[in-house]
Amino acid sequence: MRKNIVAGNWKMNTTVPEGVELAKAVVAKAGEVPASVKLIVATPATHLVPVAEVVKGTPVGLSAENCADKEKGAYTGEISAAMVASTGAQYTILGHSERRQYYGETDAKLVDKTRLALDNGLGVILCVGESLEEREAGKHFEVVEAQTVNVLAHFTAEDMKNIIIAYEPVWAIGTGKTATAEQAEEIHAFIRKTLAGKFGAQVADDTTILYGGSCKPSNAKELFAKPDIDGGLIGGAALKADDFIAIAMSF
Ligand code: PGA
């Protein structure tokens, strides 16, 4: 049975003290969320150690927003999967569209990053999603399929136990423009079908697929009611503990 997950992606927001306060506010309200919904906060790398202290012994999981495609060594400024794991984090986001767009994250790099994350015991939240031009050109299925397959072709059904997919249409991220629940469901069902083709029905059925892109308390219920939408990867609304918790209570 797949899990329902609501993960907050803080992106490059909050100082360390502000992030610690935000994590404390999430932990304080986490008890209001049904036990069947897993909460995760994905914080900047600088915040992982202090936030790990805050979430320790609580149901709130901790994620990085990225990790390096190399194991270790002379890669100034990079943070390895082993380093992320050593903070106490249990997950990392990989392949976010902002990383693909601004930092040259390719599918090939994502294969290496995913391998290193899994080898270091991290769960991976792998992001896929089409741009506005790609959607307008009717290429959204093709793009999402390629992003999914290009990375996951290198992994096994066993690996999939630790991989979560996040569908984030780029045109809906931070724009206030949400995909309709129908548009999101259509792609989620398609991703699940793609997974079934590669790994079989059981793996497809067991994989959590999150929606991201202007998900907020006012639209989460409709999105989460869809059969193939298993939760959300939340950006802007995750910076307010009340909104983040309200989204998680929309199941
Ligand atoms: P948003 O971001 O909720 O601010 O649109 C989602 C994401 O990029 O993870």
Description:
- By secondary structure, this protein is α/β, with parallel strands linked by helices.
- The protein has one domain (4-248): Aldolase class I (TIM Barrel).
- Helices cover 42% and strands 16% of the residues.
- The chain is built from eleven helices and eight strands.
- An eight-stranded parallel β-barrel has the order 1-2-3-4-5-6-7-8, surrounded by six helices.
- α3 links the parallel β3 (61-64) and β4.
- α7 (140-152) runs parallel beside α8.
- The radius of gyration is 17 Å and the shape is globular.
- The mean pLDDT is 97.
Uncertain spans:
none
Query: How many beta-strand segments?
Result: 8
The total number of structural domains is: 1
The set of bound ligands, ions and cofactors reads: 2-phosphoglycolic acid
Sheet with most strands: 8 strands, parallel, barrel
At the fourth CATH level, what is the homologous superfamily? Aldolase class I
- Tell me which oligomeric state these chains represent: single chain
Which terms would index this structure?
251 residues; 16% strand; binds 2-phosphoglycolic acid; TIM Barrel; alpha/beta
What's the short version?
With 251 residues, the chain is α/β, with parallel strands linked by helices.
Produce the secondary structure layout:
Blueprint: E1 4-9, H1 16-29, E2 37-42, H2 48-55, E3 61-64, H3 81-86, E4 91-94, H4 97-102, H5 107-119, E5 123-128, H6 132-136, H7 140-152, E6 163-167, H8 181-199, H9 201-206, E7 209-212, H10 217-224, E8 231-234, H11 241-248
Parallel strand pairs: 1-2, 1-8, 2-3, 3-4, 4-5, 5-6, 6-7, 7-8
Helix pairs in contact: 1-2, 1-11, 5-7, 7-8, 10-11
This protein binds 2-phosphoglycolic acid.
